[in-house]
Amino acid sequence: MCIDVVLGPSVDWWALGIILFELLTGIPPFNDDTADRVFENILTGAIPWPASGISDEAKDLISKLLTVNPSLRLGSNGMWLCVIHCGLSNVCRIERSDGASVFQEY
Fold it and tell me: Would 37 disulfide with which of 15, 28, 32, 72, CB 3.0-4.6 Å?
């Protein structure tokens, strides 16, 4: 049980990795036969990738989102790195009501 732990935004990036993996495979990442082995997989970052059906780019993105160390996790140092990793730097532009772009050129 976690008491008085402040998780911060890096836990949201972790959750995104979990959701992406499950959407692509139909099973949760770190899946195994017992709860103890699932916990061990989480601690070691062992992801049982399916033999086919997931692109290398998706594996790379999910692996970086599921990095055990929160300070090294993709997105934990700002959303822009995640946007660049996904190749969305020129695609994902949102304009505010005053016409300014939310994302700036990197």
Answer: 32
